[in-house]
Amino acid sequence: MSGVFSPTRAKIKERTLRTDKWWLEPAITFGVLFSFVIYATFRAFEGEFYYDHHLISPFYSPCLSDACVSGSTLFGWTPVPAEIFNFPLSPALIILIFPLGFRMTCYYYRKAYYRSFWLSPPACAVAEPHTKYTGETRAPLILQNAHRWFFYAGLVFNVILTYDAVLSFKGKDGAWGAFSVGSIVLTMSAAMLWMYSLSCHTCRHTVGGRLKHFSQHPFRYKLWTKISVLNTKHQQFAWVSLFAVAFADIYVRQVASGAWTNYYFFS
Ligand code: FES
To answer: How far apart are the C-alpha atoms of 51 and 71, rounded to whole Å?
Structure first.
């Protein structure tokens, strides 16, 4: 027997000797992540209100199907015409696999949801209910190793969402030089996603890992030191980018449904 019931462990009846509110952080994490999952699922299935006058929701970008709302497709490009493959559901159901896969396999989020959803363990120095530790060495958790591939896919999405943010500087008539609340919302969302990706542990390893001598790779060393600084804030970027991207979707939804008006500072 291993874990907290191992015969070599001290026999303490109490689940924890901590007297602080150790349960608060996992409880908040659970509440926020659960709300996000519910909202993202609702939006993924909704299939409308994702585009309005050069503002596209990050949940629906890149929209690459003939079924996408007019003007929302990336470069007007639809690689698979509807006559060949007519995906009957919302395009977000395909798109969200990548950003959600990236977040679900993130090292920080793993810690967060293992603690808050599976209580494994719920906090430091608090015994978990499980009697066995199986780690991430077999199915299904071995799939967490796909994180590096989701990281690369995430970079492609960041480029696309940055392009979308640039497009938001077009006015309703299609002329460049407009500036609206929507431009700020999409730009902040894209910027925070970049910070989240650049502070990722995989990014740090890709840039500076597996090197025997930093002295022979001065450029990579310099980049690695910068990314290492960002990496210390990865948890913060994980949350801020989650809120930023969720708010960008809410904002576009409200504008596209007519509930809010996108205010133009100038157009
Ligand atoms: S470790 Fe969090 S995104 Fe890579």
So the answer is: 8
CA 113, CA 93: separation in Å to the nearest integer?
22
HSE-up of 26 (CA within 13 Å, CB side)? 19
Nearest atom in ligand 1 to the alpha carbon of residue 102 is 3
Q: Phi/psi of residue 101, each to 5°? A: -60, -40
* Structure token pair of residue 121: 């363990």
Ligand 1 contact via 195 beta carbon (within 6 Å): no
Tell me 216's DSSP state: G
200 lines ligand 1 (CB under 6 A): yes
Task: Please give the model's pTM, rounded to 2 decimal places.
Answer: 0.90
Distance (Å) from CA 204 to ligand 1 centroid: 10
Q: In terms of Cα–Cα distance, which of 59, 151, 72, 65 is closest to 108?
A: 151
Distance (Å) from CA 202 to ligand 1 centroid: 6
Q: What is the largest CA-CA distance in the chain?
A: 73
Q: What does the pLDDT look like over 153-201, one tens digit per residue?
A: 999 999 999 999 999 999 998 899 999 999 999 999 999 999 999 999 9
Atom number in ligand 1 closest to CA 238: 2
SS3 195: helix
Helix, strand, coil fractions of the chain, as percent rounded to 5: 55, 5, 40
- Alpha carbon of 138 to those of 106, 110, 133, 135, 143: distances in Å? 18, 16, 12, 8, 8
